[in-house]
Write a structure and sequence with these properties.
Rossmann fold, two-stranded parallel sheet, two-stranded antiparallel sheet, 4 strands
Amino acid sequence: MCMQVVIAAGARTVLVPGMIPLGCEPQLLALYKSGEHDPESGCVTELNDLAQLHNRALNAMLHELRLAHPGLAILYADLYSAITDTIVSPRKYGFRNMPSAACCGGSAAYNFNMTAFCGAAGTTTCMDPSEYVSWDGVHFTEAANRRIACATLKINSPTLFNPSTAEARQRVIGCA
């Protein structure tokens, strides 16, 4: 197990990222057009259910690790909630109305085309990537990564950093 290797190497604080909501990725939305989609987010329900199942199992494993290593700070980064919140309320975070569309890609659904990846001939790029959650249908934009990092830091800052420096660290990456 990777975590035990990190702990054996002397880590005192470990931040473990959870699974993202897979059913919200433009690549997978383009592939799974049929099937059940969440009415609030538009994401593929089955894929998100799988991600949530993974996150519950991961949290159970992290709980066991915390019991086995009480002197360590083993933290969970809830990427699923940060991304889902961004998809459901894009304008709240400065994103466009259609957060499931890729900024750079083909002209197919969700601006993602399996045969026309970002940068290939015939692909397009949005004018302002900061308005998009997804860069190329697979990777997040810099703005989305900042939003995810800020959400994770907000939850975990008191544990990760001295409270007097937590706010300064958040400002460094543009968290307000």
